[in-house]
Amino acid sequence: MRFKKSVLTGALALSTLVGATAAFAAPASYTVSGNDTMWLISKKYGMSLTSLIQANPQVANPNIIWPGMKLNLPGTSAAPSTSNTGTTTGSTGSTVQPGTGSTATTSTSAFASQVVTLVNQERAKAGLAPLTSDSALTGMALDKAKDMYNNHYFDHTSPTYGSPFDMMTSYGIRFTYAGENIAMGQRTPQEVMTAWMNSAGHRQNILSPNYTKIGVAYYNGEWVQEFIAN
Question: Which portions of the sequence form the region Disordered (predicted)?
């Protein structure tokens, strides 16, 4: 088992990114396929992750989408889709396992929710305010976990997204303080929390009074916590 931390603090000014992009008219809806995530779809059509999530209130958990699901694209007149296939039950949903092309029920969302609960239990013991689970931050955490798994690395700097700062900025997430904890190989939420709490740096992120929001993800043995204050 390995785990790694980084404490990222400071105020960053958001800058406008200018580049050459192809102009095209976005369709009213999009059918999820392959290993799509909300973030990948938002980038494909040149929109923010937050706007895509807000345009799809019918999606119970933005971190769990599957092939065949219909998504509304912001800026169109499409009504919310009611023809999605697949099911979500409680905090467990259907997702595509890499390389299988079929759906399977996983504990991805349930594990993430349990970690948030455990984090706030530890903060309560320390007399700290609870962190609020943030959907955009959670979506980013899941994409980071998938990226580590699919690209066979374990590091805060992603070959796809860059640093956690870079990734947050590209997702349209604003922050004054930010931090990330990652881990790999732990089998349960309690096991990964025990590992993090036994590490001074990871514990510092979990118990920092500076943070107000959290996003947690688990994917095929990869664990990610993202923290921000804004």
Answer: 76-106
Which burial class, exposed, middle or buried, applies to 155 when counting CB atoms under 10 A from its CB (0-12, 13-18, 19+)? exposed
* Domain range 29-72, its CATH number among 3.90.79.10, 3.40.50.20, 3.90.380.10, 3.10.350.10: 3.10.350.10
Q: Which amino acid is at 98?
A: P
Question: What is the reported pTM?
Answer: 0.59
How confident is the model over 155-183, as pLDDT tens digits?
999 999 999 989 999 999 999 999 999 99
Coil/strand/helix, residue 219 = strand
Residue 144 and residue 220 in contact, taking contact as beta carbons nearer than 8 Å:
no
DSSP annotation string for 78-123: PPPP----S-EETTEEEEEPTTT-SEEE-SHHHHHHHHHHHHHHHH
pLDDT digits 0-9 by tens, 93-123: 222 223 222 222 346 889 999 999 999 999 9
Give the distance from CA 195 to its chain's centroid.
21
Q: What DSSP string describes 173-215? A: ---SEEEEEEEES--SHHHHHHHHHTSHHHHHHHT-TT--EEE
Helix (H) or strand (E) holding 216: strand 213-219
